[in-house]
Design goal:
This protein is an all-alpha fold and about 160 residues long. The protein has two helices and two strands.
Length: about 160
């Protein structure tokens, strides 16, 4: 770090021994060792903080990329939902229009098939219901079926 050789350290130690004396030199050496240890821990802490911040800067870029992708996805989904809602409203309006038109056509067809009959007045003031109109295209299940007489000579085929 400072490029101090062993010879230079030996000269510094001899000067310290002469200046401080043999009684105070061990106490000063312990204090200097503790200060050097603290300095090393401080430098290591600063290095780790710098390394952590540099990694976090990379994570911040990654976080921003992910956030942008999420925002783009959210906006795409919201636009799709808005399109589906609009289409649903259009279908609902079309269905209502078709329902109204069908109701009008059914009412018109009912008026054409069975025009309203004039009620007949009795001498007692009671009205009678109009006679039912027979429709040849309808199958009447409750009408009496013509009786079919069994044939005189029934032919029975037997397979061999």
């Amino acid at each position: 770090m400072f490029d101090i050789s062993f010879g230079e350290l030996l000269i510094v130690g001899l000067v310290a021994l002469i200046v401080l004396g043999p009684e105070r030199l061990p106490t000063v050496a312990r204090t200097i060792g503790a200060l050097v240890g603290r300095a090393q821990r401080f430098v290591a802490s600063v290095k780790s903080d710098i390394h952590q911040h540099s990694q976090m800067a990379g994570f911040d870029d990654l976080k921003q990329d992910v956030q942008q992708a999420a925002d783009a996805f959210r906006s795409q989904i919201e636009s799709e939902v808005a399109g589906v809602r609009e289409l649903s409203q259009q279908i609902g309006q079309t269905a209502q229009a078709v329902e109204q038109e069908a109701g009008q056509l059914l009412d018109e067809a009912a008026r054409q098939i069975a025009p309203p009959a004039e009620p007949a007045d009795d001498s007692h003031g009671a009205t009678t219901a109009p006679a039912a109109v027979a429709d040849d295209n309808q199958l009447d299940l409750f009408e009496a079926a013509p009786s079919a007489a069994p044939p005189d000579n029934p032919v029975v085929k037997v397979r061999e």
